Amino acid sequence: MADPYLKINCIHKQFGSFTALQDISIDIHKNEFVCLLGPSGCGKTTLLRIVAGLEEATSGNILLNGQDISKLPPAKRNFGIVFQSYALFPNLTALQNIEFGLKARKRSKKEAKEIALETLALVDLLHHKDKYPAQLSGGQQQRVALARAISLSPDFLLLDEPLSALDAKVREKLRREIRTIQEKLQITTIMVTHDQDEALSMADKIVVMNNAEVMQVGTPQEVYQTPANPFIADFIGSINFWEDAQTLKTQRAIRPEHIRLSNQEGIFAKVEEMEFRGPIYRIQFKILDQSSDLYGKCIKVDVSIQEVHTFNLSRDATIYISLLAERILTYKEQVVV
Question: Model-level pTM?
Answer without folding.
Answer: 0.91
